[in-house]
């Protein structure tokens, strides 16, 4: 029988201070019984010999200092896991909310996970074809990568994430896959959009959803991604599945982190976010990857809605420093009606080089991508110039680039919500665009590659 | 021995610790987590713990070890990967599998492996600390030289030859205080710089094989450089290229708070890459220290010291060592995190007030030196800096700039257009240009410095001209200005841009750099000349030799290629003027 304490000294925001506690560990899970009979969960944030500071996941509303009872579970937070979780919906701390029976766990795992030993990591190098040109050709996703979508309010990041989840495949392979979806503070409508998408395509049976919605307790969000990733680790490393984890929206997660930090009156870092936010985010994002000797993998796609579309905002900034690249959505492109509104220039996939090329996609992949980047950047420069001095005063080449930029956006970037382009189709479109530039401008592509793939040359032969 | 009284993340407090020393290593709790004392108050000690403290309870015991944080030094370091406190990750993997669990105690060096020891001194020889008494062929590239450790000095009364483990005695020295046994293994406290005889001025460039660094912003052996840049600007790729191609004897690569996959990439790639000098795998001269971003934050603070101690150890053998620290910002943030848990008064942006002195102390451990054993060795440090939002005015960048002598500013806008390495040529600088002039003049060419200056002037001029274009359009420029823009573009695209992934272009020798630069600049002269005779800049792009220049970086025979291009250019330009075609 664990001891229940009623010695609550202080409650501030989501924090509660309990006195006189004995034998309680750092990070331990606590159960809080309110006078109303309601049960809540908490976690030890700081512990000294006679005092524990708890963070209450479901907030402190209605908690009193006289009747409320706190008992400690003697262990850090764990989650019971089983393959039965596929096709089910849970709340932000892992309790079923789909009116189906509780899960009988096959294994219980610590939600914080452990760091993967870099020595045991397998380098991600398997090309995932998403069917989206801007991603496949220019910011290739590979299995085991963590690649976030940097978006803004009102941009179609959900649609893009759903399309990726739907179309993603490793060419020439049929393997068991799963999607783990963690919602943090998004609206019910957005969550239902994903659920419908998964159901429509028949992948719901392969999906585990954890929903902490906008009207759910904010502090609970701190645990949601960890529960989702623990589930993903179980499916990937114990059940050999290739798991795609979608975390949306990490901005809400960071807000919750800030709320706790503020309640503890910690010294704030940039824009009030705690100084350890980098480490904290890393403990989530670094849980993507592949492990030597294990069949499964975890690919992560966090969604970040950048406040004021500002890529230097601490949330986007710290994320970018940890993840292996980013897809950046652009409001300008979106306004022009281009879907998916991926702005390729600030987008990046760091693991691309090992997943593409001869034997994986095609030998010209990297060079074509580099050339598109540089040509589009030139086109955008020309566009800026036109805004100031008018199109007439542009040089011959600049005019070509200007035209290129428009065509690039309309035919290459732009594609349908259900359009699933193969990498060969994407390369075809790219070459067609590039062939409208003078060959001397194609400096990023080696001569023999131009001779082999340039549409003009091919026709000549 | 003390009792834990408070736990807050990686910082714990213990009472009953009277007599413990500052920076002493302790083992905390039943799981024996490694920690270090960072503050003493009466009989309370504040300890930063290098491992995850989840589950630790007040009331558990803390045991002092009596020694500060030390790492094992000796044969077996190379070709290895360590965590932030010097534990080999391979040995950890053997004990705990794919994930790193807590409280693991593994020796820094394999105690069973035997190394063939060849003595370099004989019985009766007098030796003192820092002298080399023998060697071990540790890898195909590196001969591990065994130096007399600590303060031992005296006469050799016994010296062995043959196969030994690092713990067995290889020599006995008779000192004034009795006999001292020497083993191949020694320990060193990471926070203390290893002693040297004197410092030497850094005057030899560390050749990196990267055109933008070697030609425009060189770093000297024993020098320091900072690479700041926002995410995605290519800091890590630049660091990895330096680790691959720079002509140091030993590379120490510290992954400090960065991605796990990047460490794996180094581990995967380096064994298959060959050293341009020796033809042997690069991994054989490399030591990796990895504290990835999800590994405990306190060990991150220690990792750069662990790295630089290993670097100094090899320096003391008379080697030139290059240390890459990626990223020092994560190290500074680790300091900030610990500091805020200690509730210290914060300085700028929450960083502790001692940020600048800690940074300075770290970079000061670089240098070209005469070792105690009278050999010449060097430690060069290249530190990546990750400024939040790419804003260089933040404290870590600014404090680093005050210390380091070469500044390689990475630029997001260059990275966006895939101009790599994305070093901004206008804001970067190197204070080693003057020290290394002699080297370039004698080893490369007497005109190298002049060419570099002329090219830099062109690039400067380009940015001014571009401003004019932005205001009034390109038509307003005269023909000579347009030519200048054309050559500057060639410098940017054909010289400064370098592909890290191309077999040929990833490494560019100093000779090739010189020839390429010379070609671009002499063609510029030639075109200038022809401009007076009626050449139009608008038609330059159509000439064949321009394309050849764009591709010369991929050429394996640059001497011949440069000659051919020069001839072709002379012919094409001459013909153009004569026929009135252009």
Rounded mean pLDDT score of chain B: 92
Total number of beta strands of chain A: 22
Structural class estimated from helices and strands of chain B: alpha+beta
> The CATH topology of the largest domain in chain A is what?
Rossmann fold
Summarize the structure.
The complex is a heterodimer of chains A (461) and B (582). Chain A is an alpha/beta fold and 461 residues long.
Task: Describe how the helices and strands are arranged.
The complex is a heterodimer of chains A (461) and B (582).
Chain A: E1 4-5, E2 8-12, E3 15-19, E4 28-33, E5 39-48, E6 51-56, E7 69-76, E8 78-81, E9 88-91, E10 107-110, E11 121-122, E12 127-129, H1 133-136, E13 141-142, E14 149-151, H2 157-167, E15 169-170, E16 177-186, H3 188-200, E17 207-213, H4 224-238, E18 242-248, H5 250-263, H6 277-285, E19 289-291, E20 297-305, H7 314-322, E21 325-328, H8 331-335, E22 348-349, H9 352-355, H10 365-389, H11 396-413, H12 423-434, H13 447-453, H14 455-460
Helix pairs in contact in A: 10-11, 10-12, 11-12
Chain B: E1 2-8, E2 11-15, E3 24-28, E4 33-41, E5 44-49, E6 61-68, E7 70-73, E8 80-82, H1 89-96, E9 115-119, E10 126-128, E11 132-137, E12 143-147, E13 153-159, E14 162-164, E15 169-175, E16 178-183, E17 186-189, E18 198-200, H2 211-216, E19 224-228, H3 235-245, E20 250-258, H4 260-269, E21 286-292, H5 297-315, E22 320-326, H6 328-341, H7 355-363, E23 367-370, E24 376-385, H8 395-401, E25 406-407, H9 412-416, E26 429-430, H10 437-444, H11 448-472, H12 479-496, H13 510-532, H14 544-551, H15 558-579
Parallel strand pairs in B: 8-21, 19-24, 19-25, 20-21, 20-22, 22-24
Antiparallel strand pairs in B: 1-2, 1-6, 2-5, 3-4, 3-6, 4-5, 7-17, 9-11, 9-14, 10-13, 11-12, 13-15, 15-16, 18-23, 23-24, 25-26
Helix pairs in contact in B: 5-6, 7-8, 11-12, 11-13, 12-13, 13-15, 14-15
